[in-house]
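ZP: hey, is the zinc ion complex queued? I don't see it on the tracker
AM: it wasn't, my bad. submitting now with these inputs:
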Amino acid sequence: MAAGGLFGRLFGRRKPSALEILQSAKWKCASCDIEHHGMFDIGSRAPDHWGKAEELEPNGALRTDGDFLSEDFCVIGGEHFFVRCVFDIPVHGMAEKFGYGVWSTLSRENFDRYVNGFDDGKYSDMGPWWGWFSNNLKGFPETINQGCWVHPQLGRQRPVISLDDEGHELARAQQDSISPERLLELYAEYGHAPDVS
Ligand SMILES: [Zn+2]
């Protein structure tokens, strides 16, 4: 009985595991004021090529003749077309996948297809569509301008993206899953580390 009580006290005081943090309703961040809720996605508001203030216009204001940036569409110089996608990575022990909000180029033809189907979440061609990955991600080897596949999703979900080079570390993370500890490392790269002191 005494031993059980001792173990109980030790267990109660031990630091939570990475998985427990990702499954917790909320956790305190050592570096930002936001209270995080379990696992969350990390998003890039623009392709890395954008290179200026990331002020978003409404999707409905889309212009294709100059520079344009909204939550889901980006045009640079009237000739480079980008869409916001999700690169998802399964995490051991988690029911949901972790998602990076990232951008890919599309051909003008596929960009128009995506825009035309966007409101209904139905597309004349379900791809996958070829593109060039348009962000670097912290904690992984360079991904910008890697060839990739954009898989449009029905029902107004963002397109899912996969890398063409299956040997790239990021592609392997998507295929093989990552550990909860690795995801916390990635969060730390983006300035979010659990305060477990
Ligand atoms: Zn944080």
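AM: back. The pocket of zinc ion is lined by residues 29, 31-32, 34, 36, 192 (CB under 6 Å).
ZP: great, adding it to the tracker
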